[in-house]
Each structure stands twice: as structure tokens, then as C-alpha cells.
Amino acid sequence: MKKNLNASFFTGLAIGVFSPLVLLPIIVFILSQSYGQSFAYLWSQTLRFPEFMSRYLSLALIGNLGWFYFFLNRERYFHTRGIIFGMLLYAPYMIYVNLGRLF
Predict the structure, then answer these.
(1) Could you tell me which of 87, 53, 51 has the C-alpha nearest to residue 68?
(2) pLDDT class for 69, splitting at 50, 70, 90?
(3) Confidence category of residue 100, pLDDT binned at 50, 70, 90
(4) Which residues, in sequence order, are CB contacts of 84 under 8 Å at separation 6+?
């Protein structure tokens, strides 16, 4: 079990967790420009309503695919495992928000 957790895994985990948080404002900015609304208005909606956060965060998680293939092509498999696990950490939030609308 010890060889499955090394520094490369935690580097990939950090990339998998923080990369969508960095990409989220960029995606909201692009969407605000395409909708013709101000960034501040769309950003406040994103922070206030979980449904918007879930939508835009799922778009931001797509950015992790670039990191995943980058490290996969360089055969850094511990990095790729960390990125996958980092993306899976967002799954409970997404399930909670999407199933919360049903009840």
C-alpha cells in the first residue's frame, strides 16, 4: 500500500483538486461574455446557487483531461492516478446538488 501513495500521487491530487478551482472563474468569464452579462452578476449567481456552481464546475473539471493526457503520454501514472482521485473528490458535491433538486 505504501508504494501506491508517493509524492507524485499527491502532486496529481493537488492538480486534480485545484485546477478546476482556477479554471472556474475563467469559464464564468467566457460564459458571461457569450451571454452578454457582466462577470460580477454571473459570478454572484455561481456562488449563490448550487445548481449554477454544479454546471460550471463540471465544465471546469473537463480541464483536468488535459492534465490527465499530458501525464499519461509521459507515462507518469502516479500523477494520473492523483488527478483521477482529485476529480472523484468533487463527485459527492455533484451528487448532492443534482439529487437535492429531486427532493
Answers:
(1) 87
(2) very high
(3) confident
(4) 16, 68
d(CA 91, CA 87) in angstroms, rounded, equals: 7
Residue 24 has pLDDT above 70, yes or no: yes
- Cell digits of residue 26: 475563467
> From CA 70, how far away is CA 25, in angstroms rounded?
23
Q: Which of 59, 4, 70 is nearest to 31 (CA)?
A: 59
Contact 12, 81 (CB under 8 A): yes
Residues 6+ apart with CB under 8 A from 19: 60, 63, 64, 67, 86
How high is the pLDDT of residue 103? 65
Give the H or E element holding residue 101: none
- Given the C-alpha cell 452579462, which residue does it identify? 37
